[in-house]
Amino acid sequence: MSSGDLIGVWTGAWEYEGNQINTSVQFERNGEYISVDYVNGNLSSIETGTYIVKKNEVILQVGGNPGKMIPYKYSGGKLKNGGHSFSKENSVSTDLRSLAEPNVDELIQGTWENYDSETDSGERCTFDDGEYVYTTFHKKTSGADRTIAGAYRIDDGRIYIKADYYFDYKIDGSEIVLSITPDGGYDSGIPRVFQKIE
Prior knowledge:
By secondary structure, the chain is mainly beta. The chain has helices at residues 3-6, 96-100, 104-108, and strands spanning 8-16, 19-27, 32-39, 42-54, 57-62, 69-75, 78-81, 84-88, 110-116, 121-128, 131-138, 143-151, 153-155, 158-162, 165-172, 175-180, 192-196.
């Protein structure tokens, strides 16, 4: 088996403890793969990594880690692993890469809030189609303290609302987690995590 034979999407389906499992694995020319699992039709997990082709075997390295490997045997035009069989799809309408790398701009749309009841201080930020409104506030006392607004930009794992002020984000499955990590003050270096409220 050559890498050229492997490139594309392979699918498998089986039942496990009364649940219908559907898995698709997309092998890319750059040596990377994306594996997507559905349980009873619902997205369950997304895994990425690298792969190596050795004769009639494909070895997946989860997260590119050679210490965590999943072997597949190639036989009779199918990939086989643990009693499960995968067939290559001739035409696939969905690029699995789009699932593995969700649209960050779409995920952040709405209002996000971080509130500390002990200090009665909070931050709220609304992202709306390229524009943001960021407010600091005290719920128990004066309400809104400071508000700034403008255009935000997404760059290198960060969402910038000012040149030197930004949200960090990470993707967790199909969800996104936003945080701001101060570089000064009593909470320097401690991420303030925001929850989506609307």
